[in-house]
Amino acid sequence: MTRRCRISTVALVAAFLMSVLSAQAQHAAITTDPPPDRANPAAMQSFQIPSHGAQMNALAYIAAGVGPHPVVLLLHGFPGNERNLDLAQVLRRAGYDVVYFNYRGAWGSPGEFSFSHAMEDTHAAIAYLRETANAAKLRSDPKDILLIGHSMGGMIAANVGAADSQIRFVGLISAANMAGMALPVVKANQQEAALPKFAEQLAAEGIAPLAGCTPESLVRDLYAHAAQWNLPDLAPRLATRPVFIVTSDDGLAEPADQLAANLRKIGDTQVTSAHIATDHSYSDRRITLEEQVLSALDAAHIH
What is the pTM of this model? Predict the structure, then answer.
């Protein structure tokens, strides 16, 4: 082997090892607790977020350090059995504050649940995080708010992010394009004929944790906003921010993939996407999901 070849080989091996070590360092939050900060320790707070006359139940996972920290608003799905709080803990170890809340009428929060209300509630939660006094309590940055939503929460994150240009990052985890599923029926003016089937599908998801709604009322809400909330059509209003889209083997990937394609088609270079071969809740791929979310945040240079 010539000296030049030896140098090239050593350089390649060194580059490979550096990339491995870098990835391990970036994702140490999955396996390693950060050093304690006695002056500003990691903490947890429970509180209420006001939304249209109701007080929604909320939790904050506060990162160690004086901050201010970027804050992730973590949105649960329908009805919200998978809360992704393991992801919240990982994000906190990585230096993010995470706020989780239950929409009006969901899981004990007062009020009536609807998809429209969930959209309004997310805007209300963002307004809460932007108040100076609240940001100070959480050691969070009121100008550095990120949305990450799972399933129905993905539909909400995409729509609220599209409506609020100050949101720094939008992450969709197996986003359920629930309104988009109703769009062909609305276009064909077959809403009433299709209502029993759609209502049966929603009822099968389990609405016991949701107050003030029926499967039929929820379907009519989707009908009313089918065109407005359709995921692929949101691309022009999301293209100014980093967007992360991860899908699974749950049959919901096509609209999310189309959103990613539409973003790229209009020249968005800030969209990242991944597919994980698992179920809708990522039951046997939780660490893989966490790695993908952290990698997307790293790529977006948000910290």
Answer: 0.91
CA gap 236, 252 in Å, rounded: 21
For the chain, what are the domain ranges? 1-32, 36-299
Distances (CA, A) of 271 to 46, 119, 190, 241: 33, 23, 35, 8
Query: Which amino acid belongs to residue 302?
Result: I
| Residue 118, H or E segment | helix 115-130
- The pLDDT, as a whole number, for residue 16 is 39
- Taking the domain 36-299, which CATH number applies? 3.40.50.1820
What is the tens place of the pLDDT at every residue in 166-201?
999 999 999 999 999 999 999 999 999 999 999 999
User: Which single residue is written with the structure tokens 């691309």?
Assistant: 235
Q: Which tokens is 226 given?
A: 């089918």
Q: Is the pLDDT of residue 224 over 90?
A: yes
Q: What is the pLDDT of residue 301?
A: 84
| Rounded Cα–Cα distance for residues 301 and 293 (Å) | 13
Burial class (CB in 10 A: 0-12, 13-18, 19+), 185: buried
